[in-house]
Design goal:
Helix content: 40-55%
Number of helices: 15
Structural class: alpha+beta
Number of strands: 22
Shape: globular
Length: 489
């Protein structure tokens, strides 16, 4: 994609950097010990190194380059041009140049993350993370790599734990990012501070690229980094990041121990079903275990069917336990990921259901922020006197003529009708979603905003003509439906 030949001055610079790595031997050897401690790299492996051009990923690249003979491994640089900032092309050129300096192969890809965000209804952070990991996986498959190295450090870990704490995570979430995840993703810098990493980069004379979006307080992670952590350091504990990392490590060890116990208990509870894609548990055996183990058993059952726990929250586990411990011998519960739990006397049956959906109903605070944990999202409402110069597209951002009636967000109901914006007559929501080509299994998950019994907004698709802003509008209510920020995991 980019062509660049090294000049004499650049060759001198490269030699100086390599010599300086020897001078920075202390940091490199500490990284080496951390890699060995967690068995991150085996001899002969190909390691994809995710390099954005920032200080963390550059330091990771140069550390691994210095240690490549130590581990008898090969490195392959991977850079995603996300298209979020106007200078993202310059980032790609910069990383390509460094890879050539180090005589390393490189894969560069360009993805329109803002368009992906709008199309999938994701936050910009979640869209960027999804695009980045998809890219790393593709590169890994193409070149036969067995490891993907990421530049997360101690500060990133503290931010992740605080984010999850604020959202009500349990010990599994609060253990934070793992040094090695899924046997593939490795984080050689996870125990090191940002200051140590910056000092190493400064010794090498590196001039990292700066991502100015990291300094915008628009995302929760940025606010935690820029506001909450400095406040905690100033007023409560100057070593708060180290303390949080130590706590995460303790929780990781305890969580791993419980995971083992939970796995054994899961097998003890399990009954062999007659069909595939079904997990059947014995309720009586299940109830003999401690609550902490019961939750692990449920995670094992869900994980076997879906392989993904990211859509499951405290409310889901509470609902499952309530069903299992309740008096009704026959009951069922729809779960995220098209899963369904059925209780039939003393059998607990988990299975995939094409039309399973999780019923939800939330009262929307106006003005204010309403968290929607079952949807992994929130809705933000503001009231203003002025009308917008340009109307939002009505998908995930909308504006309405202000009204005092309480607003609720719920699933669609049988017989729901509304008048789509720009249309003369009304239409069944079911028919509207069919015409909009929404897959059948996803229709019951589409959030419907209602005022009383009238539909105001089919979120992600269309607003109602009846609530549109007009010439006589004196106050407007602005609504933004946004998924939770993505987590670095």
């Amino acid at each position: 994609m980019f062509a660049h030949k090294l000049g004499d001055l650049e060759k001198v610079t490269l030699n100086l950097r390599i010599k300086t790595i020897v001078m920075s031997d202390c940091f490199v050897q500490r990284v080496n010990r951390y890699i060995l401690e967690h068995h991150m790299i085996r001899p002969g492996e190909i390691v994809v190194v995710g390099v954005s051009g920032g200080v963390d990923s550059l330091s990771l690249l140069y550390c691994l380059h210095a240690l490549r003979h130590e581990f008898s491994c090969s490195l392959h640089v991977a850079h995603l041009d996300h298209g979020i900032r106007p200078d993202s092309v310059a980032d790609a050129e910069y990383v390509h140049k460094l890879a050539e300096e180090l005589n390393l192969p490189i894969s560069v890809e360009q993805v329109d993350v803002p368009q992906m965000m709008r199309h999938r209804g994701l936050s910009i952070e979640a869209a960027a993370r999804e695009a980045r990991f998809d890219f790393y996986e593709r590169v890994s498959e193409q070149i036969g790599a067995t490891k993907i190295a990421l530049g997360h450090h101690r500060g990133d870990q503290a931010e992740t734990v605080l984010m999850r704490l604020l959202r009500g995570a349990g010990s599994i979430g609060l253990k934070g990012m793992l040094p090695v995840r899924e046997g593939k993703f490795i984080r050689p810098l996870l125990k090191f501070s940002r200051e140590e990493i910056e000092a190493f980069a400064a010794e090498l004379g590196l001039q990292p690229r700066r991502d100015l979006t990291n300094y915008e307080p628009s995302s929760l992670r940025n606010r935690i980094r820029l506001e909450l952590i400095p406040l905690l350091e100033q007023l409560y504990n100057p070593n708060i990041q180290s303390t949080i990392n130590q706590t995460a490590e303790l929780l990781r060890v305890e969580s791993d121990y419980l995971e083992g116990i939970g796995g054994e208990a899961f097998q003890a509870c399990r009954e062999k079903p007659d069909v595939t894609d079904v997990v059947v548990l014995n309720r009586r055996t299940f109830l003999r275990y401690h609550l902490a183990v019961r939750q692990r058993i449920l995670r094992c059952a869900i994980g076997e069917l879906s392989g993904n726990m990211t859509s499951f929250y405290f409310n889901h586990f509470s609902a499952m336990l309530k069903l299992i411990e309740g008096e009704s011998p026959n009951a069922s519960l729809n779960l995220p990921g098209n899963l369904r739990l059925q209780r039939e006397y003393d059998q607990l049956i988990f299975h995939k259901s094409e039309y399973a959906s999780n019923a939800f109903e939330y009262e929307v605070v106006v003005p204010g922020t309403t968290d929607l944990p079952l949807l992994n999202a929130r809705i933000i409402a503001t009231v203003e006197a002025s009308q917008p110069a340009k109307l939002p597209d009505g998908k995930f951002r909308a504006v309405f003529d202000f009204f005092q009636s309480p607003l609720k967000l719920r699933n669609r109901w049988a017989g729901d009708r509304f008048q789509p914006f720009g249309m003369q007559g009304s239409k069944k929501v079911k028919d509207f979603l069919i015409d909009s080509k929404v897959p059948r299994q996803e229709r019951d998950r589409v959030p419907i905003l209602v005022s009383g019994e009238e539909i105001v907004w089919v979120v992600g698709h269309r607003t109602s003509e009846r609530f549109k802003v007009g010439d006589e509008t004196k106050q407007c209510v602005y609504l933004a439906y946004t998924p939770y920020d993505g987590l670095a995991d």
